[in-house]
Amino acid sequence: MNTQIQTLTVKLSDAEIARNAKLEHVRDLRDASHPALHFRFAKNRTRGSWYLLHKRQWHLIGHFPDLSSKQVVAALPAVRLRVAADGAASVSGWLTLGELLDWFGERMAKSRALSEKRRAAIKSAISCQLKPRLNDLLLNDVNAQTLDKLLMWPAQAELSLSYVQQLFRLVAMAFRQARKLDLIPLNPMAELKFSNFTTARIQPKAARLRDVQLPELVALLAERFDSAPGDAVLALMMLCHGTRIGETRQARWADIALTEREWFLPAEHTKTKTELRVPLTYQVCGLLRRYRDRQAAQGYEGAFLFPSRRGKPLSDNQASAVFTRLGQGAWTSHDLRKVARTAWTDLGVDGHIGEMLLNHSLGKIASTYINTQAKEQRRLALVKWHDWLDERGFKAIHEQTGVRYEDSQNLVGALNGGACEPEPQFVKGEVLKRAETTGAWL
Asked: Is 293 in the same domain as 380?
């Protein structure tokens, strides 16, 4: 029997590798169709390495079984080009875009930097939209033409343009992250932009609540305060302060200081990951006192303003269900935030102060500047807003009467030019920043 170490020329496949793994004298396999492609067994003969022989030099492509024979053969044309250009031969263990998306989806699912809602949105986008359309697309075939044919053009016929843009950015992020970690040799989307596929402008969603509808809404919330006080106060806190549903539903009584008239929102609860201190008007303080008494009368003395039955705050789904009950499909929780911001503008609240109340990111320089002098301006803006709501029925819910002297005096000073001076250089900078990141999702 010939036991000399041999190189066999075969039709390379995973099955062929398994067959020859039993033959200790066979060290290398050479592909009959691609003579420069070699496979070398490791000491553990269930494993091995792929090489490309070019100008008498052995270039490592990758390892088996991490890279199957099918993947290596599919990537061989690109490998040859890279070796000829710069001597780099290695390829990732992924053959298709679906495999890359699986990796990226798993990575995002474990990211502590993302909220639970954000992780769920990414998972849904990958499993319901991207993988059905792009799962079998070879990484080597990813380019503007294939993305347009398989994703962009068919998706825009079924989905909103803003969501299609989010899908595009998600794929681009997956490639960018994989390239940063050197898991793929090149990023085929590095030069692609969303504008390569369409010049249509993405229009903002129209508001489904207008200020003229607020008397009817406030009347509804007054009625619900008696039958479902948690639902009513969740909506009122968002309407009164323009806060997001995620940060509002997690509010704790320990973070409500009625004497100091301040609501503290910790950074881990906010979308921008920065803490927020919301001034409380005497109307909201009255509302919260009534609500706390109602909770106590019902036997609840726990930590949360909006508890679930499991001793935790309302989940995202539970909070969304509140607005399904209240809005009946006509408006959502985010429409409360929109109508508040619109009304602030109509009431003459400075745009910069309005952005601060919404806890939008204003940039490091602007945030440093504002934190030293805007607390009173924000409080007076909310005083003006809540007085406006009082005229439309809010007073019947919080049951406070009259206007506190310090509020009325400071408000007069503010309206006479004593406060709320705009800082156009910061506002302009934020507008430009937003223009560069319109529709950012991740």
From this structure: yes
Residue 430: pLDDT band (50, 70, 90) is very low
> Are the C-beta atoms of 415 and 383 separated by less than 8 Å?
no
Shared domain for 411 and 271, answered yes or no, is: yes
Q: What is the mean pLDDT of the chain?
A: 84
Q: Identify the CA nearest to 287 among candidates 134, 197, 187, 397.
A: 397
**Bond prior to 154 in cis (omega within 30° of 0):** no
∠ Cα 137 143 144 (to 5°):
120
336, burial (CB in 10 Å: exposed 0-12, middle 13-18, buried 19+)? buried
> What DSSP assignment string belongs to 245-301?
HHHHHT-BGGGEETTTTEEEE-GGGSTTSS-EEEE--HHHHHHHHHHHHHHHHTT--
User: Mapping DSSP to helix (H, G, I), strand (E, B) and coil, where does residue 303 land?
Assistant: coil
How many CA atoms lie within 13 Å of 408's alpha carbon, on the beta-carbon side? 4
Q: Which of 86, 119, 140 is the last residue of a domain?
A: 86
CATH of the domain at 222: 1.10.443.10
What's the pLDDT tens digit per position in 118-153?
889 999 999 999 999 999 888 888 999 999 999 999
Distance CA 93, CA 135 (A): 15
Per the structure, the count of domains in the chain is 3
Token pair recorded at residue 15? 């099955």
Contacts of 239 (CB under 8 A, 6+ apart): 217, 336, 339, 340, 389
* Alpha-carbon gap, residue 247 to 316, rounded angstroms: 10
- Distance in angstroms (rounded) separating the CA atoms of residues 232 and 291: 10
Q: Which of 49-63, 137-151, 390-404 has the lowest mean pLDDT?
A: 390-404
H helices, E strands: number in the chain: 20, 8
Of 415, 408, 430, residue with least CA distance to 361: 430
User: Given CA atoms 138, 139, 144, 149 in this order, what sign does their dihedral have?
Assistant: positive
Q: What DSSP letter does each residue of 5-25 carry, written as one string?
A: -EEEEE---HHHHHHHTT-TT
Note the pLDDT of residue 89. Answer: 59
pTM: 0.62
